[in-house]
What does this fold into?
Amino acid sequence: MDISSAGLRVLRQIAESGSFTAAAARLGYTQSAVSRQAAALERSANATLFERRPDGVRLTSSGLTLLRHAHTVLASLAAAERELTGTAPRAELVRLGVFLSAGAAMLPAALAHLTAADPQITVTTSEGTTPTLIRALRAGSLDLAVLTSRPPHRPFDGDSPRLHTETVTDTELVVAASSTGEFAGRTTVHVDELVDAAWIATPSSDSEPLLGVWPGLPGRPRIVHSVRDWLAKLQLVAGSFGVTTVPSRLSPVLPPGVNLLRVDGAPPEIRRVLVARLSGHPTPAIAAVTRAITSTA
It folds into this structure.
C-alpha cells in the first residue's frame, strides 16, 4: 500500500468528526479535498473504509484496522519531528476529554490531585458530548475520556475491540430552576408540571443527544434557548428565563439564584460517570490520570 501521512490524518479526522464536512472544517480543507483523500485511501487499501449513513460517516471494520495502525504511524512521525527539532517534551502528556458538565464538577479536583501526586504529567483537556468523545478516543485524538451513560449502561458503541471503562460514580439527574421563579422555595416538582415549561437545552443533531430536557417528557418540549455553555445555561436559569436538567453533583458550583428540584411522578434518572480508554495496557501516565479522576469523584 502507498498511503501518505496526510491520508492517515484525514482518516483519523473523519473517524473523530463523524462526517466529511466536519473533517474538512477541522483540517482546513475543502470537502472535495477530503473526499478525494478518502477515495485515494480506499484505492490504496483496496477496501471500503467508510460507511456513509444518514447520521454521518463511520469507519468499516477495514477502516478501523487501518486507523489502529494510523495511530502508531502518526505518533512515530510526531516523535521524530520533536527529536529533529529538539522540542521533545519533558513531561508526559495525557489528552483528556470530558463530557459537558464534568469540567466544572470533577476536573479541578482531579487535576489538583494529579499535580500533587504526579507533577511530571501534563494534562490537556477538551470538552464534548459523549458520542463526540467516543469518536475522538477511537480516532486516537484523546488518550482518556470521562463519559456518561444512562441505564441499562450498554457498551458505548459496536466497534471492536470494546473500550475499556471504569465506573467513577453514579449521579441523579435533577432540574435546575430559578430560586425566585415559578418553583421558588420547592425541592421537588412533578413531571406533569414540566410539560409546558420553557427549556434551556444544548443544541442537538442526528449524531448528538438532546441535553437539558427531562427525558421521556410527554409531548414536544418547548425549547426557548439553545445553549451549549453550562455557565450561560445556568445564568439564564437564575434569571428565570427557563429550566434545564443537570446532574445533582453540580450543586457545589451552581451560581446564586439557581435551585435544584428532584422530579416526582417519573422514575429516577440515574447517570453513570465512567472513564474510558482504548483497550490494552495503559501507559503509567494514563493510569495515573485515571486514578486521580476516580479518587476525587
